[in-house]
């Protein structure tokens, strides 16, 4: 862990190539990819060192595409095979209807890439965070500053600086905000965002069940209530519920046995009788989209750029895609990356990433609006849409193609 920087005149401080605010997996992956280009990187996080080195289990599971897994591995973030649970099929249902839509499948055919028998893997968020943190240890060109918050951004000819809450100042050619969908760094840079508090809560809990899940994810929409089941190792799964606050409070008040009985009923016995394996985790559900992704020598990545609704299941993958696009833009425009914060590279990144995420933002908002609408016309539209989608092989192929995009360019 770095010692707090001395409060000295800026002219006496060496200017870093990049300062990244936020040492989550996206920020850590970006630091590793930039350090591999021989750039000097300082990572800043408000959490103490111990919390980053040994992250708590927050109950969340991350769906990794094959592309994301390859990107993490290429950056040096190693996730053991035994800590991954394969996903072979994904289903979507409208309420209690027994007929749903297959979003993607690896059953009976390949995914366009030899040897793949899954559409992705589920990995605990805790596992990814710890693996990413361990990967940066001992990397010579990465400095880690923990337990400090950024209170202001400064600027000068050819640099920006972050002012920490202990008054230390760190200048860099580029400042990257990787501090989440409510990013304070984004606000300090003067970059506006559309932030929508859905008024819902996200409840997650790992469960055991009596019938096999067949490595299939299920999603059900019942008006304001959204339910998902994510297949883990053996006969275990992660339940994900998006609920109005009043319903979330009711679920939180249930005993483990009562919760399991209610979950078995709500999930329509899809995996038989359920029992609780661990604690119930509760999160407010907020989605966000930055109006602009860059400012003068500032760039947004991960959830600071786009914080998606969990219905998409691709929030982390989109975050890693922002890392890939930023690194590619900086190297293609700077060449030697002599000035990693130059305007041309940032403009290229903003153009390409915004082009990719704007459709995702609007599609996810429209999907959530459609499936949370309880009025009869909306129910009819959902019924017709799923009926059409069941017959639409191109739609399924489009989703499967997205999950199996070409690997990261090197």
Automatic annotation (TrEMBL):
Pfam families: FAD_binding_3. The keyword Flavoprotein applies. Belongs to the UbiH/COQ6 family. Its cofactor is FAD. Pathway: Cofactor biosynthesis; ubiquinone biosynthesis. Keywords: FAD, Flavoprotein, Monooxygenase, Oxidoreductase. This is 5-demethoxyubiquinol-8 5-hydroxylase UbiM. It comes from the Bacteria. NCBIfam families: PRK09126.1, Ubi-OHases. Residues 17-340 form the FAD-binding domain. PANTHER family: MONOOXYGENASE NMA2164, UBIQUINONE BIOSYNTHESIS MONOOXYGENASE COQ6, MITOCHONDRIAL. InterPro entries: FAD-bd, FAD/NAD-bd_sf, UbiH/COQ6, UbiH/COQ6_monooxygenase.
